[in-house]
Amino acid sequence: MRDMADITFRVWGARGSIFTGGTDKTHFGGDTTCFSVSGGGGLTIIDAGSGLRALGHAMGAGEIGPFTEIDLLLTHLHFDHICGLPFFEPIFCNTMTLRIWSAAFNRDEAFRETLARVMSPPIFPNFRHWDGVRLCTAQPGIALPLAMGGMATPFSLNHPDGAFGWRIDTGGKSVTIASDHETGDAEIDDQIIAAAKHTDLLVCDATYTDAEIDSRRGWGHSTWQQGLALGAEAQAQHMLMTHHDPHRIDDDVMQMEREARAQNAAVTFARSGWTHIL
Questions:
Q1: Exposed/middle/buried for 162, CB within 10 Å: 0-12, 13-18, 19+?
Q2: If residue 119 lies in a helix (H) or strand (E), which one and from where to where?
Q3: Which of 199, 220, 216, 184 shows the shortest CA–CA distance to 75?
């Protein structure tokens, strides 16, 4: 049995919509969504935003791994969640199996055709490495086995063009990803709360504040205040707020974190490099 403390969650990118830079955005980082869960010699990745490049570099440098099999779980195919794929060094390695999962398609081939269309001219130079990647479809509510051990279960989110969160259960611990979600659809909100029930770490969309949300209805994102309420109902052990607005500077995100922690001490606003032992 794997040691409980052996399950490690790490942030590689926590910015939303588009990567960003500047000296006032270094603390939380500018890369878009990418997280990893590792344990027992295995690795599961959630989303392939620009932060995936840094993860691949760390693997190439021997800082983490090596791994012979990796599962990459996509929440959806908006570009900020897949733009890191052609820059992920392990894709070019023929000694490792990479499985990419999506719950948005009924057929593996439809998933492959859609992803390949994005990574082709004139949008992107022709990407010739799909043969080394296994593209797999998942079904909402149905758990799939992970190479690292344990299971991952997708569930619906409220987001333009559709998106799916993931609950990962491994080594007696759980991580639930519910980013890119707009609170307000009672049925979907209830499904998320059920999926995240008693999870050790709940990753929530916190793009906006309550003062901003009225002018951004329908954009597919929530406020950190709404995220807190969601986590409280799910009775999550720790909450990670993510998908920071690309215009949001460090001082503003820090202030949001202070306000959130005044209500719940077990809250962190995601920053690149943040590591949490479950």
A1: middle
A2: none
A3: 220
- Dist CA 130 CA 135 (whole Å): 9
Kindly state the DSSP code that residue 138 receives in the 8-state scheme: -
CATH number of the domain within which 40 lies: 3.60.15.10
pLDDT tens-digit profile of 162-171?
999 999 999 9
Nearest in space to 147 (alpha carbons), one of 195, 189, 98, 184 = 98
**Amino acid 1: pLDDT:** 35
Closest CA to 147 of 132, 167, 130, 168: 168
Distance CA 105, CA 127 (A): 21
Measured from the Cβ of residue 8, the count of other Cβ atoms closer than 10 Å reads 16
Tell me the average pLDDT across 21-42.
96
Alpha-carbon distance of 250 to 148, in angstroms, equals 34
204 Cβ contact list (under 8 Å, min separation 6)? 178, 179, 181, 222, 224, 227, 230, 231, 239, 240, 241, 242
Collect all residues with Cβ–Cβ distance below 8 Å to 253 and sequence separation of at least 6: 27, 28, 244, 269
* Number of domains forming the structure of the chain: 1
Q: What is the pLDDT of residues 81-136, one digit of tens each?
A: 999 999 998 888 888 899 999 999 989 999 999 988 888 899 888 887 777 799 99
In the predicted model, what is the mean pLDDT of residues 241-253? 97
pTM strictly above 0.90: yes
Q: Which domain holds residue 135?
A: 4-277
